Amino acid sequence: MNKMKLVMVGNGMAGVRTLEELLKIAPDLYDITVFGAERHPNYNRILLSPVLAGEQTLDEIILNPLSWYEENGITLHLGKTVTQIDRVRRKVVADDGTEAEYDRLLIATGSNPFILPVPGKDLDGVIGYRDITDTNTMIEAATKYQHAVVIGGGLLGLEAANGLMLRGMQVTVVHIGDWLMERQLDDQAGELLRKSLQERGLRFRMGAHTEALIGDKDGRVMAVRFKGGEEIPADLVVMAAGIRPNTALAESAGLHCHRGVVVTDTLQTVTDPRIYAVGECAAHRGIAYGLVAPLFEQGKVCANHLAQFGIGRYLGSQTSTKLKVTGIDLFSAGDFMGGDGTEEIVMSDPFAGVYKKLVIKDDQLVGACLYGDTVDGSWYFKLLREGRKIADIRDKLMFGESNIGDVGHQGHNKAAAMADSDEVCGCNGVTKGAVCKAIKEKGLFTLEEVRKHTKASASCGSCTGLVEQLLMFTAGGDYSAAPKKKAMCGCTELSHQEVRDAIFDQHLVKLDEVYERLSWKTPNGCSTCRPALNYYLISSWPKEAVDDPQSRFINERSHANIQKDGTYSVVPRMWGGETTADELRRIADAVDKYKIPTVKVTGGQRIDLLGVRKEDLVDVWRDIGMPSGHAYAKALRTVKTCVGSEWCRMGTQDSTQMGKDLERAMWRMYAPHKVKFAVSGCPRNCAEAGIKDVGIIGVDSGWEMYIAGNGGIKTEVAHFLVKLKTAEEVMEYTGAFMQLYRKEGWYLERTVHYVSRVGLDHVKQRILEDHEGRKALWAELQYALDGEPDPWFEFAKAQVDVRQFEPVASVGSPSTSAGAGAQTVPAAPVRDTF
């Protein structure tokens, strides 16, 4: 049987979701062809703002990789814009001449940004904000220019402004309205939002009318002029004053368009039933939706009719808004402005930054506006959609779902109380039943697995907590009974933080003092607490507390990494990944002399000698004559660099020298866990600075500093911290952050988890806002590292027990009964990890 031909114009979230739903219910009905004007597979557009802010990467927001299209037999044309629909011959034609015939056509062309019709709108540096190209343009501009102006104080404009500010630009938001986000907030919530964002560093011009954009002699924007003649500097202007449905193609084909491509409840166009439209380009009952949840609802209905089931109807959507600017908790839904025939319940605490407004009509909740405390937003939205009478809970309504009824002393588990039909993820239309079924049938145990199989929590992330609750009780983990405080180990009831505080507050400098003062249950601790206590002592009281080698793990006692066969690896330090011919000769000679079986280049730009016998370690260190790389320790391991401006045509800063300086300054630094730095000489970031504990990226005006990245089991993109001008500032800020981590981090806690626990705002307050405190932290670190020995060469000072490197004695000798032929018995492979 010949398959019908389905052609989709547009490769965005709404259209591809329609295809996903279609493939679920009718996988063999169509040969599918997709045209996408962009050169990227389908990606999550609502996460462009975290990409702009440096919180995520492009790869992380891809929803359907190229392999997905191949696996589903979809012909994909990327970078091709369809310019003609021939409804008579039933074919589409792209700008490069590519043609595709169709039996059914799906238009999903999305929307275009509204560009203000003012003089100067075509200057270089004036852009909209809708796609990856716009995002990359802004990221690049932030590395070259200082002043940005965002025109539009709506959801998209504020996201763009926040991202540019985090990229180091001075940003002014120009908004014609009296308060921000007037379509989603009332005046009081809008004012709270403005004050909060202003405290973060954004500037605002409210009620301002843009008259013209002024260009320089090279044709690039340089200023924005308002009515009245006032001008403000602008090296970049982002138009975020709204969107318009992209209907040009549909109109050229003679399809009826009014506020979008007009469609019926089956998402078929009113002009041609063979042609469907979904997403921001479609107008349903006079409304063109711009939020993702209603677009996915459209996709599900559209797929039902394309599959020839013909039973679905799209009747419109109620929408809610959650602002995605980091740290801002905001929610609104329904008729939150109120009016005739409505009542309002309002709670306002401007000092605490909390504002709640509930609008009631005919004993039903019809609108909600929350700022600062949005934990019950999804519950209010559920009441609003269901039209439930609220007379019986009205007196408790303002205080949230957890205050309804008598829940005893066991708490209120929202996930457990939900019905299977209740929606968990509004963006993707995923119910509790779908999540629980996937967890049980597919054996899911992690949030990432749930996201992969159900898409719940994979879009805006606001339902993540709810999904985690479902995962916890469905997979069998009884988290509701877990204690709030986790004891350090079985030797004590105290947590890591309580032990750290006690060591500092009581000036404890010895392990015995800790055991006595803190009422330890065991006389000598255990393999869990002893390494942690030893670190807390020496990091809290450097030069007073004495390092106890016997309280370190085996790798740190031997100063080499033990391998699975009982041999060791030796990784000498190479400053910033740079070495010399003399060092390489010494390494090669040692490899030959000691018959080291494997020599490997590491990902951290060093050389790893694998298979070194323990009795040869001291001799290998001596013959190589290079400092310890601390590849075995909870310490600074590598400082990865690119060649930078010294050699690279693209380099803007000398990243190699910066890396060497950082490494030489901090190479003897012990920490709660291993630490890795990277320094890139330009924003192309060849040294992968975005996934390091500290990442430094050179830009034209200096350096950008990123912190708390991780490239391990779960990759975490580093947070942008600050833009710096000089190498001296880079050294001071990096050292201060490391010392803060050394003092506040829990043992075996990576920087990514430390920052997640204390909050990025806490780090910013200590490093960026407290100037004297930052300098003091840097001075503390330098004091602690002054005179710290190299354990490969200063054995006595580093308390290295060299007896451990002596080969074991012979079993049997000429004077024993074993006779003269007795052999030396090699040591059994060491399996001790403590």
Tell me what the structure shows:
The chain is α/β, with parallel strands linked by helices and 834 residues long. Helix content is 29%, strand content 20%. β4 (82-86) and β5 (91-94) form a beta hairpin. α1 (13-25) packs parallel to α8 and α20 (655-666) packs parallel to α21 (727-744). The longest helix has 18 residues, at 727-744. Mean pLDDT is 87; it is low at 404-413, 476-484 and 813-834.
Set down the secondary structure blueprint.
Layout: E1 4-9, H1 13-25, E2 30-36, H2 48-52, H3 66-71, E3 75-78, E4 82-86, E5 91-94, E6 99-101, E7 104-107, E8 111-113, E9 126-127, H4 132-144, E10 147-151, H5 155-166, E11 170-175, H6 187-200, E12 203-206, E13 210-215, E14 221-226, E15 231-233, E16 236-239, E17 243-245, H7 248-252, E18 261-263, E19 275-277, E20 282-284, H8 292-306, E21 320-322, E22 330-334, E23 343-349, E24 354-361, E25 364-371, H9 377-386, H10 414-417, E26 423-425, E27 430-431, H11 432-442, H12 447-454, H13 464-474, H14 496-505, H15 511-517, H16 529-540, H17 554-558, E28 561-562, E29 568-570, H18 581-593, E30 598-601, E31 607-612, H19 617-624, E32 636-641, H20 655-666, E33 675-680, E34 694-699, E35 702-707, E36 719-724, H21 727-744, H22 751-758, H23 760-769, H24 771-785
Parallel strand pairs: 1-2, 1-7, 2-3, 7-19, 9-16, 10-11, 10-16, 11-12, 18-20, 32-33, 33-34
Antiparallel strand pairs: 4-5, 5-6, 8-17, 13-14, 14-15, 21-22, 22-25, 23-24, 24-25, 26-27, 28-29, 29-31, 30-31, 34-35, 35-36
Helix pairs in contact: 1-8, 11-13, 14-16, 20-21, 21-23, 21-24
